[in-house]
Every structure is written in structure tokens, then in C-alpha cells.
Design goal:
single chain; 2 domains; about 130 residues; about 10% strand
Length: about 130
């Protein structure tokens, strides 16, 4: 939510296909990345402003950086606002009803086997699993 103001700012400054300057990320998770630095910029992808992150080794190679931006924009354009590769990954990762039931059954059996008591489905979860929506 903290990026809302930033996105609003860049939506007034960038035209479709343009990007903001690069900044080095200082996110706490980067402490786990050892010496690898992550940079980001905002890009007007045509329908919205997206924050795009790059590892330092890509940013340091101008040709690779520009090609990465171009590929990302092409994917967003082909996907009508959402990168085709991410949309396809999402579609492939969706867990269907039968698989979900088998997973929860396996999980419950393993919990019982591990000695956990009162293993079962909560009323709320049972309603969600049995929902017709």
C-alpha cells in the first residue's frame, strides 16, 4: 500500500513504455541475498505502473538491461496487460478440486500419524471446500 503514492506520481510522469530512474532496493529480505544487490524502477506498461526488479549484474550490462525491459513490455503487450509467462505459470499452478481434496486428506493422515490430536476440518474450511461458488 505504501507504493500507491509513488505509482500515482509515476502515472503522471511516464508515458507507456517509459521507465523511471533506477534505485537500489533496501528491502530487509535482501539481507538473505548475501552480496547480491537488487535494483528497481517503475515502468508504464500501458495499463498501469509496474515496479520491476533486476539483479545488479543485469543493471550493469546496458544491453542486457534494455533487452530485459523490452522483453517484459512485449510479454505484457501480448498478455493484454499481464505477462504471458506469468499468466501461464498461474494457470498451470492452479490446484483443482480433486487434487485439493487428495492433498488435504494426505495432510490430515500425516498429522494424525505424527500424533496430533483433534485433526480435522474447521467449519469455515468445510464450508469453503463444499461451496458451490
Amino acid at each position: 500500500m505504501k507504493d500507491c503514492g509513488i505509482v500515482l506520481l509515476w502515472s503522471t510522469q511516464l508515458k507507456p513504455g517509459q521507465r523511471s530512474p533506477l534505485w537500489r532496493s533496501n528491502s530487509r529480505i535482501l539481507d538473505l541475498y548475501e552480496d547480491q544487490q537488487i535494483y528497481f524502477c517503475y515502468v508504464h506498461v500501458g495499463t498501469e505502473i509496474a515496479r520491476i526488479e533486476f539483479p545488479q549484474w543485469v543493471v550493469e550490462n546496458t544491453e542486457m538491461f534494455e533487452e530485459s525491459l523490452g522483453l517484459m513490455l512485449a510479454q505484457v503487450h501480448k498478455g493484454y496487460g499481464y505477462p504471458v509467462a506469468l499468466a501461464e505459470a498461474h494457470n498451470q499452478a492452479v490446484v483443482r478440486g480433486g487434487d485439493r481434496s487428495r492433498f488435504f486428506g494426505l495432510l490430515e493422515r500425516q498429522m494424525i500419524k505424527a500424533g496430533l490430536k483433534n485433526v480435522g476440518t474447521s467449519y469455515k474450511e468445510a464450508r469453503k471446500r463444499g461451496s458451490i461458488a
